[in-house]
């Protein structure tokens, strides 16, 4: 059954029709959404239903894949453990000098008081021709704990990723979001020891989210900070739960995106610095994607003897959106891998460079997995 999904996706690629295949974290189901035409549909206010793919800059309208056909199939968890790619440093090296200059420039602006934090990213371009479907199968094998996807629109492009970060998950008017910061390589024998810089960076993201949401929601609840493992990396995570007023989902989403975890603080100043100094267009990297307003039908009365009441059912709208991290864009004969990291006054350029090299291995493993 799962092979039929891969075959269907291959057919859509060949026929230049949009589709997305995705598996949610720690689930054993592969989902497919297939659109019957090649039109580009946009999201206007997030009241629409479909699979949304949104850019880093919401000044460009998010793209909506219509749910003309939805197919699900069970899929086995592989969870293959792979070593760091031997040539990973060499593959990154051509970007190093420019990235260190960019970090140094950001530190100067931070020390002058215009920024507290800015997230700087870069694009690694590899000349190669690959099968997108085969690459996606590698992603599924390697990263069972991440949101894994392949998204394709013939007029936009093809993206593949394995992201650990939920932007916003809702059921009716209840929602969950998270702040995610800090990165360390995982060691199966021990949990990470976090530095003051990493703990402070995590708290900045949490504080920003709480402040951004306070006027948009009815209630908020914050969890303790925990360490989570994703894609052979450790991160710090705080979960935030709450309730928003009816028809306010779009307001909550726009208040959240972009978070300091992908942009910086103050948001406006950080976004301006990114726009003026990163030497490429992020496009959908550090944007978000996922199910938007999918419907679930709930029976109001589970007593089968009461047939009259059982006929009344309620429909709840659910959304599950993920930040587009650890991803790559596939073109005809090139692959672009995107990585980045948060720069604060405590940052050291060489260490920040090494963190992006470590993050790039998430996608390099996919390219090298046979």
From TrEMBL:
Residues 96-297, 316-359 form the Chorismate-utilising enzyme C-terminal domain. InterPro entries: ADC_synthase (IPR005801), Chorismate_C (IPR015890). It comes from the Bacteria. Pfam families: Chorismate_bind. Gene3D superfamilies: Anthranilate synthase. Transmembrane segments: none annotated. This is Isochorismate synthase. It comes from Maribacter arcticus.
